[in-house]
Amino acid sequence: LENIEKINHNTSLFRFALPEAEQHAGLPVASCVITRYPITKKDGSTGYVIRPYTPTSPEEARGYVDFIVKSYPDGKMSKHIHNLKVGETLDVKGPIPKYNWEGSTIQNVGMIAGGTGITPMLQIIRKVFSDKSTDDKTKVTLVFANQTEDDILLKDELDKYAAQYPNRFKVVYVLDKPQQANWEGVKGFVTPELIKEHLPTPETESSIVFVCGPDPMVAALAGPKAKDKSQGEVSGVLKALGYGSENVYKF
Question: Which amino acids does the record list as binding FAD (predicted)?
């Protein structure tokens, strides 16, 4: 662990140095890694807590990898990472490719993210709007759901993209419990009406809708992933609106 940058009341950015200063993490967009740490089980043997995380460091970064981690009251790995001190280490294995964006020709992208579910979306957003990108056609709309204003991660960066690419990137903030009386975003939850208003329709050519967030949210919107962590069937709100496996991807 090289550095810790506090983002809000329960979330921080953790930068881990790679073994070599010029080492490339080799994390394709979009991919995740597996983290683990050892524990002593009741019988005295060694076990492991294992959790996947999506790095948020730039694809071209060398010598380090970043993770944005929210500390959950019952989250064994998130609490472990938050308790790490600079200089301590974390076991990381990967990359585990998820959705291969490289060479993608999709031009209409919808995203529904909840909380730290923003991390794989950020990988794709950065790729699409990178200075090195030759893509000048892809349009992205992000519906980003959180509890309160303080829970909105990376808002400055997202707003910067929206200002820089007003015809190609739009972000819709949804808060369950806004604290400010003058909150100008959406109040409540991600509803069918909200999806129909902002995201590509099932009939939109060259389109996809990405979904990532807490398991109950993903299940309600797009159906749960299968037990083997494969996509599983599309159900829930998106199926009711006419979407299918050909235009929905669950991170």
Answer: 51-53, 68, 70, 76-78, 119
